[in-house]
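Annex B. Sample input.
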Amino acid sequence: MKWKRLTLFSVVLQVIAFPRFELSWFAWIALVPLLIAIQKTKNLKSAFKISYYCGFFFFLCSIFWLRYVTWAGLFFLCFYQAVFFGIFGVLSKFFMDGKKRFSFLLLFIIPALWTVSEWFRAEIPVMGFGWNLLAYSQAENLWGIQSAKWVGAYGISFLVAFVNTGFFLILRGGQKSQKIWIGTACSAVFAFNLVYGFSECQKNEGPQGPILRIAVIQGNVDQEEKWDSGLRGLIFEKYLKLTEFASFDDPDLAIWPEAAYPGFFNEDYSTSPVRFLSEQLKLPMLLGSPHREGEGIYMNSVYFLSSGGNLESRYDKIHLVPFGEYVPFKPFLSFLEPYAYALGVSDFSAGREYTIFELASEDRRQTVRLGALICFEDVVPELARKFVRKDAQGLVVLTNDAWFGQSAASYQHLQASVFRAVENSVPVIRSANIGVSGFISSKGKVEDRVKNERGYDTWITGVLIRPVAFANPPGTFYQKTGFLFPHVCLAGILPAFLMVWAGRRRKRSL
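Annex B, continued. Sample output.
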């Protein structure tokens, strides 16, 4: 059937807009075939069906790396996330079948529907999965993403969907004057966004704040080796040697990735070689390690050691991965716990405090405040925003993507970090076990990353040291208002829905 070919074409265009293909410009037309297919369907049921297929195969192709962890989880996530595509299709069809005088409103309604559907699928409690938002495809388009300071990643998704909808409406047919208005509106919004982004990128960073020379350590430890007790000594030696090597360039802070410490650091602290190394080198450190507190209470944590090797503070991961770090809804799903734990699901407890790490700047005259995000926490915009609202001047991402083999996962993950930098106008420093480790400016530019002599930046061992200037966050509009933009989209959809629905009722009553 023709709609199947259109749906498949839309899937292909969406997938190649993301890593590893990174043909980001295809995102601006990727939804057009899907919208045409929705238009051609006979009823709402068919619209849901084809949109659901599109979502299912988009996720199956773009997050196929999840198979390295769980095939069951991959298919469950694809089936579940595709529902939001299906709802988008149903509502789009509902509005498309409205009166022709409402057709110009589709230019705004369809992007709003897309934005709200992304917002729901990403932010719904417990089961939210904010991976590969349409906006993230534009992570390397610095001019195009600066408006995220105002509207966040969901606003950039709206913009991309807006242009897609414009193309669709022009191809759909209709009056020539209306096509001209639609083309003019899309061109104007697209151009304004680029001009704004260009002007923002040309601005000087302003007065330089305190500077830290930061070393990110990329240990490159395979997931199958990570918790092998026989390899614990070798893992220790690798990280200690890399840190000692970094110390020759006199950094102010060294960062180890998520769970880099092969044990429970709080239990080993008094005799740990990490403590003695920090004290010997007079080097403050942030390191990821599991934390055990009492009997059966575990947390995924980041420890901060001062230059004297003293344990200053700890951040416990707040946003845990369901069915990865814990089993959700235990009163209802307790029967799954034995099976889940047998498959390697951890049983972590969530942290509650947005801990800010404070350390002296390069000249020792000022203090720099950093917030830490562990694992996939940088995919949750609200977490980064709350850290910056607590006066963090920069964000540190400690992660371990070794779970996902040599796939696109690390590069897709990097795109989320880029948006957290732009939204909050703060630098982001990434320390990842197998990569990508590096430095992202407050404008979202990946300034440098750990690489080997061949230019590879994942599944390699290395160290990178770079000075980073930190200033007091300027307080972007997004940072102050959070999810205001998707709320506005939702508020705009509701009266439009009632208007079309009322029009249909009047038509039936005649």
